[in-house]
Amino acid sequence: MRSITLALRYIWRKRGRTISLLLILLVVATTTLTGLAVRDAAADAQQAIRQALGGVFTIEQDESNPENWTNRQIEGMGYQQVFAGKPITAELCGRVMAQVQGIRGCDATTEQVLVPETTDGRTLELIDDGSGTDPASEQAFSTDDFGDTVTVIGGTDSRFDANFAKGYLVLAHGEPVIDPAARTRTDRDGSDDDADGGTGVGTDDGVVGDVLIGSQLAERNGLRIGDTIVLRRATVHAQMSGTSVEQTRTPVRIVGLFDQTAKSSALTSNWSMTNAMFTTMDVVDHSREGTAEEGFDKVSFYVTDPERTADIAARVQALDELSGGQYVVSQDTADADAVSEPLRNLDALVLALVVLALAAGMVILCLVLASRVKERMHESGVLLSLGFGRWAILSQYLVEAALVAVVAFALSVPIGAMIGQFVGDGLLGMSRAGTGGGSAGTGGGLTSKDGMTVANSDMMSPSFTPNADMGSIHVVIDGWTIAGLYGLGLALVAVSVGLSGMVLMRRRPKDILAAMS
């Protein structure tokens, strides 16, 4: 108590020097506090990105294995090399989930390009949203009705389609499309086929299945949930496969509408995500016979804990039914990495800033406190001659500096709260400079059994550029951040006082008084 009283008296007596010390500590404290808060915000943002975009791995057919390819004679086209590996089935989802814990859902998908029509044969008016990336291809593909085709994704559960699971698309109205044959036990218990948006294959009204379409496309064509549209193959595709267009006409019922939350792009505007549709394998196979036999393009699995994705993917790869070189398991981190890269750069930048602030603060504090110790050397010599110990005098100096530091740290909290978001956004903008974006795409294309390339390659599939806003930070100064500031700050003050007091600790009272006289 006596030390605090003496410290307060000295602080008041030397108000000018106290204010200068307060300002130095305030600058160091504000810089450190802001840096700690920005680092915490960046860590929270990275965790949110991992939850939204991470935690996914895929099973695809192994196209790199030469044993999975064969030469086959295609009628009217001669011999071609086609993929003949083991197909991916919807049942594979369930078997993997039954054997490996920690997976919250999966979706097997295949892609085709089909022409959407009304039930009276009128082609739907598509939306040109400017997402086409190749005007030359758009012009070349516009011949006949091929320019009216849209991307149709046949899957087992649209809730776990990559575009929906990663938040690029959201179900605005209606129900998801879930293939009854691929429903999990949880989906089946206590629900009928239509409770969760399941397909109505083989219904009395001739509808083959359900479909999700974009809200903008529905509005453009006056469609709503419950309406029926028709999907069919383009004339050129039907002719090449030896079937008639009429045989490929597939009635589907609209059960839901989706909206986009991010910008997408595609080779041509008609294949953009704005015009895309989501349905089931039965619908795709009805439009293009043989698709079900060839199987899905890939299966995407979503894990409960993104931190365990690599471990769970390794366990899936080790399953007996995936052995033999037929399938390959890969972890999809492209989108998460693209959005997280500026945040990782920001973390390194802020860490360097905090370390630099603490180091500079220690040097300045040592110089200031050493000057004060030197000025008070006569006072220290008198106290030593009166029986005060060196540690007691040094403790007095420490109490004085600590009291000023506590006030400086308290003042830095509101200042840091005011400038923290501004500083964080500025540093994040610097870290984003020079970093490239990523896009969400689907797997590579395969040559089908009829000799045609299935339209599921990265070139033809619509893809999303991860929204930079997903990597934004929200800087908040909480109790833990303030506690970290006080811990680092008081440690810095203690070390600085100790270093500046080394002169006092090495000299005897007689030497100090003799030097002063």
From TrEMBL:
Protein name: ABC superfamily ATP binding cassette transporter, membrane protein
Any coiled-coil regions, as ranges: none
Gene Ontology cellular-component terms listed: plasma membrane
Pfam families: FtsX
Gene Ontology molecular function: transmembrane transporter activity
UniProt subcellular location: Cell membrane
Organism of origin: Bifidobacterium pullorum subsp. gallinarum
Primary localization class, coarse: membrane
Annotated TM spans: 348-370, 397-423, 480-504
Topology within the bilayer: Multi-pass membrane protein
Start and end residues of each ABC3 transporter permease C-terminal domain: 353-507
Taxonomic lineage: Bacteria, Bacillati, Actinomycetota, Actinomycetes, Bifidobacteriales
Highest taxon in the source lineage: Bacteria
